[in-house]
C-alpha cells in the first residue's frame, strides 16, 4: 500500500484504527475518499474522509444512518465521527455481502428484485417520522447553490446532456417542474452500488447522505437508470413490476435524472 493510500488520521480516531490495514475503495461517485479497513481478528470497517465545506455530506450520512437504525431498517453502524484538520471523518461498520452492482453470487434478475423490495420497505415508512426534508423545492435550492459555487461537474452529465451548461440545465429544472409530489421516505441516490446483499438476502442501505422525504420518483428514476446501465434495459420492467409501478411516467423519470445532475 503506497503512502498516499493511507489517510492522514484524525487523532481522535487513531486508537480505534490501530492494527488495521487500509485499502482505498474506488466504487461510487462520492466526493469523499473511502477506505476499507481490515485487521487480524477485527471487524471490517469503512472510513470516509472529506474536505470540510458547505457541501460536505458525512455529517448528513451519520445522522441518517442513526435515524434508519431507530426506524428498524438495516444499515451500517456509526462508530465514530470527527472534524479535524480541515476534514470530516466518518467511521462505520461493514454489512455482509456485496453491493447489488457486483453481487455476482446472485443473478441480475434477483438483484433488481432485491432493489425493488428494499425501496418498497423504505418507501413504506411514515413520512411524518422522517426529519429530513428533501422535497423538490428544497433540493432545487441546494442545486442552485451548488451551481453558483461551481460545484456541479458538467463533464459528468448523462450522455444526452453532455455539452450543456449547468445554467442551461437549471433553467430546464425550473421550467419542467412536474405537478404534485408523491412523497415517501427516499434513499436519494438509489443506484445499485448503494444497496448491499448476500446469498442470504438483503443486508442493508449504504451511502445514505441524501435520504429524506421526497417524490418517490427521486428513487425510481435513478434505480431504473442504474439497472439499465449495469444490466441492460430488459431488466428495468421486471424491477418496476416488482416495485408495483408497471407503467412509470417517463416525464418524471427524466426530471429526477435531470435534478441528479447537480449532485
TrEMBL record:
In terms of domain of life, where is this protein from? Bacteria
**Keywords noted in UniProt:** Antibiotic resistance, ATP-binding, Kinase, Magnesium, Metal-binding, Nucleotide-binding, Transferase
Top EC class per UniProt?
transferase
Key word Cytoplasm present: no
**Which Pfam family, just one, is annotated for this protein?**
APH
UniProt GO molecular function: ATP binding; kanamycin kinase activity; metal ion binding
SUPFAM superfamilies, alphabetically?
A: Protein kinase-like (PK-like)
Give binding positions for Mg(2+): 194, 207
A Gene Ontology annotation in the biological process aspect, one of them, is: response to antibiotic
Annotated active site residues, numbered on this chain, are 189
Q: According to the UniProt entry, what is the EC number of this protein?
A: 2.7.1.95
Catalytic reaction list: kanamycin A + ATP = kanamycin 3'-phosphate + ADP + H(+)
Q: Extract the Gene3D superfamilies matched here.
A: 3.90.1200.10, Phosphorylase Kinase, domain 1 (3.30.200.20)
* Coiled coil spans: none
Task: List residues of the Aminoglycoside phosphotransferase domain.
Answer: 28-252
What InterPro entries has UniProt attached to this entry? AGP_Transferase, Aminoglycoside_PTrfase, Kan/Strep_kinase, Kinase-like_dom_sf
Q: Which PANTHER family match?
A: 3'-PHOSPHOTRANSFERASE, PUTATIVE-RELATED (PTHR21310:SF41), AMINOGLYCOSIDE PHOSPHOTRANSFERASE-RELATED-RELATED (PTHR21310)
Which family is it part of? Belongs to the aminoglycoside phosphotransferase family.
NCBIfam families, sorted: APH_3p (NF033068), APH_3p_II (NF032898)
Q: What is this protein called?
A: Aminoglycoside 3'-phosphotransferase
Amino acid at each position: 500500500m503506497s503512502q498516499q493510500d493511507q489517510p492522514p488520521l484524525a487523532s481522535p480516531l487513531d486508537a480505534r484504527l490501530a492494527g488495521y490495514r487500509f485499502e482505498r475503495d474506488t466504487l461510487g461517485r462520492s466526493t469523499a475518499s473511502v477506505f476499507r479497513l481490515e485487521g487480524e481478528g477485527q471487524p471490517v470497517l469503512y472510513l470516509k474522509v472529506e474536505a470540510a465545506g458547505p457541501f460536505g455530506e458525512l455529517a448528513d450520512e451519520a445522522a441518517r444512518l442513526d435515524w434508519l437504525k431507530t426506524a428498524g431498517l438495516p444499515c451500517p453502524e456509526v462508530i465514530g465521527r470527527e472534524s479535524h484538520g480541515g476534514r470530516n471523518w466518518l467511521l462505520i461498520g461493514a454489512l455482509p455481502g456485496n453491493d447489488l452492482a457486483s453481487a455476482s453470487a446472485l443473478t441480475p434478475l434477483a438483484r433488481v428484485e432485491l432493489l425493488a423490495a428494499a425501496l418498497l420497505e423504505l418507501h413504506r415508512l411514515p413520512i411524518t417520522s422522517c426529519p429530513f426534508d428533501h422535497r423538490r423545492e428544497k433540493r432545487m435550492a441546494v442545486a442552485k447553490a451548488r451551481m453558483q459555487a461551481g460545484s456541479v461537474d458538467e463533464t459528468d452529465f448523462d450522455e444526452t446532456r453532455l455539452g450543456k451548461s449547468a445554467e442551461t440545465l437549471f433553467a430546464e429544472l425550473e421550467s419542467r417542474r412536474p405537478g404534485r409530489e408523491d412523497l415517501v421516505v427516499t434513499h436519494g441516490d438509489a443506484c445499485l452500488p448503494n444497496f448491499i446483499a448476500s446469498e442470504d438476502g438483503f443486508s442493508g442501505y449504504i451511502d445514505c447522505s441524501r435520504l429524506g422525504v421526497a417524490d418517490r420518483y427521486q428513487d425510481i428514476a435513478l434505480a431504473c437508470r442504474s439497472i439499465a446501465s449495469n444490466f441492460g434495459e430488459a431488466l428495468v420492467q421486471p424491477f418496476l413490476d416488482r416495485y408495483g409501478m408497471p407503467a412509470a411516467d417517463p416525464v418524471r423519470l427524466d426530471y429526477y435524472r435531470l435534478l441528479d445532475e447537480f449532485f
